[in-house]
């Protein structure tokens, strides 16, 4: 098998026995990018050539376009940040570089991570490596597609309402949103600060544990980073689920759940039971309200976070031809009107509305209260269950263009992933099947805060007893 | 709940976004549709529920007040914006 097809842990073994060098692997991955990225469009642009400094993990990696990376143009997939070159590295980029990580390219994303299909990027869509007429999911669609297409060995993404897990599911790879506060957000361009979390997209569960070991940990530069000990995540790679209790919520089997996805999930539940897990039927009664609460809380935070893009300090500045109000306000309005795409404008306006005088109590406060109820639902289930199992997404990857004119239907594709962000708990997507059409299906596991190891152990056991993760798209 | 084009113009102005007249109907319809969906939250009785702003209970993060190196002024200004004499340059505000 060509080096670009391998996992990070397989490559590390080859490095140890001197069968191949990191330079050779990097060159091979670059050749792969050259061969297939014209079709997949996972990357916005290639990164500067790395220096091949010594380090324990000299692995080719894709970096989402919202993680500050020195030497690169970083734009959040938006015209408004065109030309922005961050003067510092995000904490995760710094950690990856310190381990010898080799950045292949800057991965495409929905504008400001607003989307579930990577179609709202100002650079155009990324295409699903399994079927180029379908979306890769989003917002970390470029990060998921570059890993699935072997254009990177692993990648970093960010997840505010499912933006790592849903594209991982659509592209047939592993993706994890760690507990809120587990990974430093320093240098992540913010979307919704109380929900955003950076995490790994990898070819298998072992790589997910390895990349978590690199990026996790307290950082005083992120005031929401939590100062708790970080475990060695690879210790959780135990092929045994005996004695573990996995909760299956009845709300997971909603109208709109694709029949093939439903079947794959039911099969996975039965299989985990056969492997020794105890399955418990539970209810998370407030999760049906999660999408509604999320689109208030997340847009309110986004409208506030994106107020900084005013043409004064970063990227784009547009000066209007004629004065409407006054020169400064006109410049700000013109820059924002031309710099943001439609979905960004929609979300900023929705958030502004939810926070505006007279609507705060009816919307934002209500959204925050429902968030409490969703968190309490999880707390109750985790009293006697180790993890919650649901589909990652109600469907497999949808067609390019299918939902671009229907924002609400796009939002509903995150129905299973949003609750974990609202509750701040970790969740992971692992491949669990394919549709008849050949599109990947993912199952999502959710655990208690700071119990990423539980997710890794269940996912590892499932993965090592199945072969879904070994399939490759035919590009 | 429906939202009028006047409402859309009002929130667009608050958000410093200019919506051209020909796009008002589109934003009205889309925002109205989302607000209608969000309406379902009104069904819940939330009188005795406390709001959650952050999932992880954190209070103010503090550190010792010691001067230490940070991003250099010139480095910080290297980002692509109009500048003059080490400052960001903006349109004339006061004549």
Describe the structure.
The complex is a heterodimer of chains A (475) and B (95). By secondary structure, chain A is an alpha/beta fold. Helices cover 35% and strands 13% of the residues of chain A. The two termini of chain A are 15 Å apart. Chain B is mainly alpha-helical and 95 residues long. Chain B has helices at residues 5-14, 21-38, 73-76; strands at residues 83-84, 87-88. Chain B has a two-stranded antiparallel sheet with strand order 1-2. Chain B is flat, with a radius of gyration of 23 Å. The interface between A and B is large, with 70 and 49 residues.
| Greatest interface (CB-CB under 8 A), with counts per chain | A-B, 70 and 49 residues
Could you give the distance between the termini of chain A? 15 Å
Number of strands of chain A: 11
Major sheet attributes of chain B: 2 strands, antiparallel
Question: What features would you highlight for this structure?
Answer:
heterodimer; A: 475 residues; alpha/beta; eleven-stranded mixed beta sheet; 11 strands; globular; B: 95 residues; mainly alpha; two-stranded antiparallel sheet; 2 strands; 34% helix
Q: What is the topology?
A:
The complex is a heterodimer of chains A (475) and B (95).
Chain A lengths: L7 H9 L5 H19 L2 E4 L13 E5 L26 H8 L3 E6 L33 H8 L5 E6 L5 H7 L2 E4 L19 E6 L2 H11 L29 E5 L9 H16 L3 E5 L7 H16 L21 H13 L2 H14 L5 H21 L5 E5 L15 H5 L6 H6 L3 E8 L5 E8 L4 H13 L11
Parallel strand pairs in A: 2-3, 2-4, 7-8, 7-9
Antiparallel strand pairs in A: 1-3, 4-6, 5-6, 5-10, 9-11, 10-11
Chain B lengths: L4 H10 L6 H18 L34 H4 L6 E2 L2 E2 L7
Antiparallel strand pairs in B: 1-2
Summarize this, please?
Chain A has helices spanning 8-16, 22-40, 91-98, 141-148, 165-171, 205-215, 259-274, 290-305, 327-339, 342-355, 361-381, 407-411, 418-423, 452-464; strands at residues 43-46, 60-64, 102-107, 154-159, 174-177, 197-202, 245-249, 278-282, 387-391, 427-434, 440-447. By secondary structure, chain A is α/β, with parallel strands linked by helices.
């Amino acid at each position: 098998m060509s080096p670009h097809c391998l996992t990070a842990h397989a490559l590390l073994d080859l490095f140890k026995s001197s069968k191949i060098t990191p330079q050779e692997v990097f060159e091979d991955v670059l050749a792969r990018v050259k061969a297939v990225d014209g079709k997949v469009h996972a990357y916005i642009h290639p990164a500067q050539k790395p220096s091949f400094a010594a380090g324990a993990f000299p692995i080719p990696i894709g970096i989402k376009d919202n993680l500050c990376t020195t030497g690169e143009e970083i734009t959040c997939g938006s015209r408004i940040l065109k030309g922005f070159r961050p003067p510092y590295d995000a904490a995760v980029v710094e950690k990856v570089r310190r381990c010898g990580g080799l950045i292949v390219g800057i991965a495409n994303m929905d504008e400001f991570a607003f989307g579930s299909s990577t179609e709202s990027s100002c650079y155009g869509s990324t295409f699903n490596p399994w079927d180029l007429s379908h979306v890769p999911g989003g917002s970390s669609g470029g990060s998921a597609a570059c890993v699935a297409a072997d254009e990177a060995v692993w990648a970093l993404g960010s997840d505010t309402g499912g933006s790592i897990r849903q594209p991982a599911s659509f592209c047939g790879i592993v993706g994890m949103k760690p507990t809120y506060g587990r990974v430093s957000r320093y240098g992540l361009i913010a979307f919704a600060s109380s929900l955003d979390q950076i995490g790994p997209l990898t070819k298998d569960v072992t790589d997910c544990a390895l990349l978590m070991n690199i990026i996790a940990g307290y950082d005083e530069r992120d005031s929401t980073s939590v100062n708790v000990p970080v475990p060695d995540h690879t210790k959780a790679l135990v092929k045994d689920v005996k004695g573990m209790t996995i909760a299956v919520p009845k709300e997971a089997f909603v109208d709109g759940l694709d029949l093939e996805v439903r079947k794959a999930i039911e099969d996975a539940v039965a299989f985990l039971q056969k492997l020794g897990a105890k399955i418990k039927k539970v209810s998370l009664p407030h999760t049906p309200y999660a999408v509604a609460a999320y689109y208030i809380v997340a847009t309110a935070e986004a409208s506030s976070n994106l107020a900084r893009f005013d043409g004064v300090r970063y990227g784009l500045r547009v000066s209007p031809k004629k004065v409407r109000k006054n020169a400064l306000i006109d410049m700000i309005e013109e820059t924002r009107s031309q710099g943001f795409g439609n979905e960004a404008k929609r979300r900023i306006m929705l958030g502004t509305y939810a926070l505006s005088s007279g609507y705060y109590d009816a919307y934002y406060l209500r959204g925050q209260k429902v968030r409490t109820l969703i968190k309490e639902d999880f707390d109750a289930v985790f009293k006697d269950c180790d993890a919650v199992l649901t589909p990652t997404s109600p469907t497999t990857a949808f067609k390019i263009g299918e939902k671009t004119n229907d924002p609400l239907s796009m939002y509903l594709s995150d129905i299973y992933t949003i609750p974990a962000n609202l509750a701040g708990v970790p969740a992971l997507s692992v491949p669990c099947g394919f549709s008849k059409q050949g599109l990947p299906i993912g199952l999502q596991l959710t655990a208690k805060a700071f119990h990423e190891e539980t997710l890794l152990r269940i996912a590892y056991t499932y993965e090592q007893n199945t072969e879904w993760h070994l399939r490759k798209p035919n590009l | 709940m429906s939202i009028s084009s006047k409402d859309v113009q009002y929130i667009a102005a608050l958000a410093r976004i200019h919506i051209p007249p020909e796009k008002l109907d589109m934003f009205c319809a889309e925002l109205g549709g989302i607000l209608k969906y969000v309406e379902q939250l009104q069904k819940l009785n939330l009188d005795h529920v406390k709001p959650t702003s952050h999932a992880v209970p954190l209070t103010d993060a503090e550190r010792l007040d010691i001067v230490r190196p940070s991003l250099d002024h010139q480095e910080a200004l290297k980002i692509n914006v109009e500048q003059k004499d080490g400052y960001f340059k903006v349109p004339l505000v006061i004549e």
